[in-house]
Each structure stands twice: as structure tokens, then as C-alpha cells.
Structure prediction request, 188 residues.
Amino acid sequence: MVIGAEGLPAAVFIYKGDGTRAAAWNSAETIAAHQGAIRGEIHQSKASFLPAIRAWNLSVDPVNSFLCIYSHAGETGIAPVRTPELSDIIEWDELAGALPRGVRHLWLLACETDHAHNAWAERPVPLGHHCLSTTASAKWQPFIQFFAREISTEEILSPDELIARLRADEPLLASKTQYSSNPKWQPR
Prediction:
């Protein structure tokens, strides 16, 4: 399933094959309905996800790009289900390779996506200028709706204001996130 044109600067990519797919897709459609210019895609196979996210990344200006990825995750990378087949795991380096130009604002919503920071430590891309990642296992689907605040042109929030709003609206989930800047980030 796809919504929005490929070259739109904001995107929500869902890599799920479990019962949270429908709610996640509903969140992406809601953002598109309210924000307008957003790309949304849902995948449950590595074979379709990697080329799709790469095509989107190559079609946008990395200086003004916003990406939210919703999946399962862990030390190795992301996956569509909690206990995936080895062939469905997208390792952190593979995901980085699928984002050759990087993105300025990156949200990684899945259990323990903070492992990406270690895997990408020496890379100038894709870890965004600002990156929201997760530090614990939780039901992250509700956080997709908050990505709309990151991309909003109606109410532009500084990183501190954004985090304060997340903490006020969803304190339990916000306490399991980190929102950091990457001084090495460079658009390509």
C-alpha cells in the first residue's frame, strides 16, 4: 500500500507483518489527510522494503527530508515480526545503504532502535541531523501520530519543544526515547 508521491519530503515507512499493521497504516493515512504532502508505504518483506525506501531517499532533498520507520528492531536491525526469519532482518548497515543520501530528521520507532547509533557511529549518513530512537521494548504505534508534529509547517517546534510535547502527551513512551543530534550528519 502506498500514499503520496515518491518525491515528497516526508515519509512514513512501515515494515510490519503482524497485527499492528492496520493501526500503523491508519496513522500514516491520518497524517497524510491532515498534513498533505507525505509519502506512506507499508511492506512486510525485505525484498520490497529496501528498494522502495532507497527510491524515496534518492527522490528527495536530504536537507529537507523527514522519515519515520515503524517496525520491530533490536541489536541486529529491523524486522517485520518479533521473531523473524533470518532473511527478513534488515541489518542496520543494509538500512544505511538503502538511505545513501541520508535524511535530516529520522524517527526509528521499534523496540531498541538505539542500536542503530552504534552501527552507524562512523557514518555521516543516514543518521539524521535529528534522530528519535527508542531504548526499550514497547508498543510504539501510537508514536507515529506524533511524527506529524515533526513535519508540521503550521507549528514549527524546536527539538526541546517537540520533546516536551511528547513527554506531556505520552510520558511513558517518551521516557523510552532519545532525541539526539548527529554532528557528523552530511547530506549527500
Remarks:
- Residues 32 and 53 are 18 Å apart (CA to CA).
- The domain at 2-181 is CATH 3.40.50.1460 (Rossmann fold).
